Amino acid sequence: MLSYQHAFHAGNLADVHKHALLATALARLTDKPKPLSYLETHAGRGLYDIASAEARRTGEAQAGIARALAEGWLPAAHPLRAALQAVRARHGPGAYPGSPLIAGHFMRPGDAARLAELHPAEYAALATNAPWADLRHEDGFAMANALLPPTPRRGLLLIDPSYEVKADYDRLPGWVDRMARKWNVGMIALWYPILADARHAAMADALAAAHPEALRSEVGFPPARPGHGMVGSGMFVINPPYGLADEAARLAAIYSGL
């Protein structure tokens, strides 16, 4: 259950999709001066080195964020590009921010970040990389269940499990429904992999049926290597901010040409 290591996959095509939407959503939230809460159930280590041996071994960052930058997928004013540039200015040209550091780029005085990570090594790294946040070495689902609705009341919850536990696909629709009822004004964003066997489909369909006004953004891409099961990336967003659907459509058009 704790074997997944994102260092091998950071900056891949799924990350570009997920993080472009996340950064856009956070930029929209911070357009207003009102404080916000950012919560994350599976934060990881928060910062990755895409020049590392792990990243070079898979080549996924080269096919993902490196290609996105080379081919202009992220315009100069894009929120993800701004967050990436800020992180690289501090940590070097091979740095790639996970979602906690992307969120950190947008956090202001008065905002609150609460991040959960259960993996001991990942949590230890997160404590170094995101000392400004309220960090929880615990199950992220339990954290969110205990803290929602948060203070400040407006904000975003990112749910980004590894899906190593196959039961996650079955449990997530009901769990997301409960969190949405507890925090009816919050933005709730669930990332999920699109696999060749389509095991995500029943989960995503159940969520869409329960939340017809939500944004369901799915993109496809070639497998990272022969036999690799992930062939796409999905984000399901309850209470999406204005403009997020446009960003999802823009990304869909880019990915359709891969």
UniProtKB/TrEMBL annotation:
Coiled coil: none
E.C. number: 2.1.1.266
Cited SUPFAM superfamilies: S-adenosyl-L-methionine-dependent methyltransferases
Site (Interaction with substrate rRNA): Y4
Pfam families reported in the protein's UniProt record: RsmJ (PF04378)
Quaternary structure, from the entry: Monomer.
Protein name in the entry: Ribosomal RNA large subunit methyltransferase J
Source organism per UniProt: Paracoccus sphaerophysae
